Amino acid sequence: MNFVQFAYKNVKRNTKSYLGYFFSILISSALLFSFNMFINHPNLDTSTFDDYLLLTIKVCSIIVYVFLFFFVFYSVSVFLKGRSKEFGILYSLGISSKQVQKMIFIENFIINALSSTLGVAVGLIFSKIILIAISNLLGIEPLKFYIPAMSMIATIIYFMLLSLLISLFISFVVKEDKVLKLLKGSETQRPEPKFSILLVILCIALFVWSYYKAVTVTKIQLVNTIAPVTFMTIIATYLLFSQLSVFIIKTIKNNKKFYKKNTNMLCVSNLYYKMKDNTRMFFLICITSAVAFTAIGAVYAYWKDQTRQVELAYPQAIHFATNKSMLDNFDEFDKKDYMDKVDLLENSLKEEKIPYYKISGEIKTVFSKDKEKSVKIIKESKYKEFAEKLNQQTVNFRKNEAISLTLLENKKVNKKVVVDDNNLKVATQVEKSVMPAYYDIYVVKDNLYDEINNNCVVDEFTTFDTQNYMKTLNICKNFENTHKEELNNGTYKFLSKSFVLDYGKTIFSTLLFLTIFIGLIFFVTASSFLYNKIYMDCQEDKEKYMMLNKIGLTYKEIRKISTIEIGILFLAPYVIAVMHSTFALLAVKNSFNMEVASSAYIVMGSFFIVLIIYFLIIRRNYLKEIREYLNK
Amino acid sequence: MEILYIKNLKKVYGKKVISTALNNISFAIEDGEFVGIMGPSGSGKTTLLNLISTIDKPTSGTITLRGENILNLKCDDLALFRRRELGFVFQDFNLLNTLTIGENMILPLTLDNVDLKEQENRLNKVSKILGIENLLDKRTYEVSGGQAQRTAIGRALINNPTLLLADEPTGNLDSASARDVMEYLEKINKEEKVTTMMVTHDPLAASYCNRILFIKDGEIYNEIYKGENRIQFYQEIIDVLSLLGGTK
């Protein structure tokens, strides 16, 4: 028997304990593969994506890879800790650390290679289903099924590399002197968990501060608030599981009446140690779940809110305007060319038999004396004409006043605005505009508008509007394609509601899909991590329950204790993650004025249902194992 | 009065290849007795103990504890029966390291929802008898082996069991601690009138008993009673053991 055979036999004869680990790698590799396959899909045209979206996809992939590494590493270390007796024997027989490393590497290599290859196969079979599901979800045409050689190789190589990395780091987990002590029983037992009251207070303070910030944040502060609040919440979460939890259980322990009743003493004293032992696991699961919930919830809410936002930002179906400030010389302006294009649009609408109304007008861009600032204005009469067509209430204002058409939810404008030499008071800011949100425009009295002739540029615009604006999509696409150059160099401004909505749908659907996928990967890996942890615990608990059963602990009581213990293991990180995401989504709601409640319910609710099902399965298996051991 | 009455007890293992662990064992234990069970490895002592402690079921025969046939009990009733009627002392103590010494001892009471005051009273009483009243708040790894075993005895006694079952209670202890633990078991038996049955290898430990049953190949081989003198009893035990081992 050579060394490789020895390692191979270790795996082969330890099938049962390796099985959980094997399956978790299998599922993660199947998911990773599908994820990889999707973002590298040849039909998915990423060239139309904005840079930020491409960056998001990159960051997401990195998060997935890094998280998977941590997850697999923790899984392996939990698993190896359960085998410390075996390592103790090997060390006492004189195995070297290098050989242990080699053995772990070979074992992991076998498992990772097998399970990731199988995972890729599973992924390949299910990707057809996944692709159809995605396409339905995204509302885009189904992506074609393809055999992605690159993704296959990438996934398998990644998991093989993992086994190498893990064996390099594993010497931190399996320490020679420690396992030898364990074997000989001379290892001193774990001391009682401690907490510092100062850190407990800090933890609560950080929570209150972070949550308060999340609730009160506004859109403008958001960018500067996200980083510190996230950071503080992460610290608070770690303190929660390492300090506050110990403090709470200690407090429960001190309530003698409760503590010394029924199975409470067994349960509480056990949790007292388990909480501290599992701090890192709780922490990791909690943070990743919170990230997943928040990301999915926010993107989903945004996705649902998109139509409303686009309709708000683009009151009319098509807006076409000149942009003279881009010209070097205003005399270059070719009025006929502009009119031709307007006619072209109008004719296409007629051809398609789309009912429409048309409003033309002008926008004046007024420069300040030093030419540094500019203000865009339209006439009150034009404003009223628009409002009437859009069935909007108009706002009356006085001579020395103006109305800001910048949407209130986007930005709050100053109370005063200087137009030429006139100091105008901003009478009101609208919640619904009549002009595209693209212009931060003001409405002024007609005579004031006409009086301004110096230091200004007059742009002409034409808008077409129709009830069923999505019908204009093809017209707009054609128009944009035929006049690409002029639109791109900015001499004309062409805004199409249908175009923006269509584009946004693809982008946010992709984002939504990505976040759901990452959430799924986090969830599945975290769950199988829990499974491994509980399986290892079960091996220890068996002995304990056997002994307790001898001195008279009934199976019913064992079931009760186990249910509480496993339940807490499952629910503690979930509950905290739900709390975090609730506040995070509240922040999103406050800053973007979006309805988030329903998407939050759907996301967290569906995770909760899956979690409960998973909990019941694991509890059943755990109890079955204990029961079989008791009846042995 | 008879506390434990065993009649024609038989235990057979295996289906195709049958091995008889116990064959036709009958004996009784009187109230207040301290009985030792001795015999070579594989003689069936542990099987006998497991049958009496209701962890295992016999192939045939009856076990009656205080007039009740314990073989009629099912599953969780058995656990409750063990909790209320039997006390257990194990070779490796089997204390929970997440609990303190005191908490380990009152565990059976908390499981039965005994009133807090009553818990305190019984703990005080038992820990005083066993001389561990100063260790109650200590953790299991902070006490010696002898003290840990006395804690286990305390846990077994706290419910005033009908029968105390000890399985090699000195097996993991050095000779001083072993003597210590045996003196406490003897004291409990004499002063608190706790009926005790102990399985052991150790002739010294056995010499604290009133009566010893020797088992060989699943059957009762011999039975001896203690006279006035423990040293002399010890000698008698050694003699029987050498006979037991010498009949090869």
Overall description:
- The complex is a heterodimer of chains A (632) and B (248).
- Chain A has a 9-stranded mixed β-sheet with strand order 5-6-4-7-3-2-8-1-9.
- In chain A, helix 1 crosses helix 5 and helix 2 packs across helix 5.
- Chain A has 632 residues and is α+β, with helices and mostly antiparallel strands.
- The model of chain A has no long low-confidence stretch (mean pLDDT 82).
- Chain A contains 20 helices and 9 strands.
- Chain B is an alpha/beta fold.
- Helix content of chain B is 39%, strand content 25%.
- In chain B, the strands form 2 sheets. Chain B has a 6-stranded mixed β-sheet, with helices on both faces. In chain B, strands 2-1-4-5 form a 4-stranded antiparallel β-sheet, covered by helices on one side.
- In chain B, strand 7, helix 6 and strand 8 form a beta-alpha-beta unit.
- In chain B, helix 3 packs parallel to helix 5, helix 4 crosses helix 5 and helix 5 runs parallel beside helix 6.
- Chain B is globular and about 50 Å long.
- At the A-B interface, helix 11, helix 18 and helix 19 of A face helix 2 and helix 3 of B.
Q: Which consecutive residue ranges of chain A, at least 5 long each, have pLDDT under 50?
A: none
Q: Identify the overall geometry of chain B.
A: globular
**Rounded to an integer, what's the Rg of chain A over CA atoms?**
32 Å
pLDDT averaged residue by residue of chain A: 82
- Terminal residue distance of chain B: 38 Å
**Strand adjacency order, main sheet of chain A:** 5-6-4-7-3-2-8-1-9
Q: How many β-strands of chain A, per DSSP?
A: 9
Estimate the helix proportion of chain B, in percent.
25-40%
How large is the count of helical segments of chain B? 8
Beta fraction of chain B: 25-35%
Mean pLDDT across every amino acid position of chain B: 89
Question: How would you describe the shape of chain A?
Answer: elongated
Number of helices of chain A: 20
N-to-C order of helices and strands of chain A: HHHHHHHHHHHHEHEEHEEEEHEHHEHHH
- Find the count of extended strands of chain B (DSSP E, 2+ residues): 10
Structural class of chain A: alpha+beta
- Unreliable spans of chain B are none
The first-to-last residue Cα distance of chain A is: 34 Å
The major beta sheet of chain B can be summarized as: 6 strands, mixed
Strand order of the largest sheet of chain B: 6-7-8-3-9-10
The helix/strand series of chain B, from N terminus to C terminus, equals EEEHEEHEHHHEHEHEEH
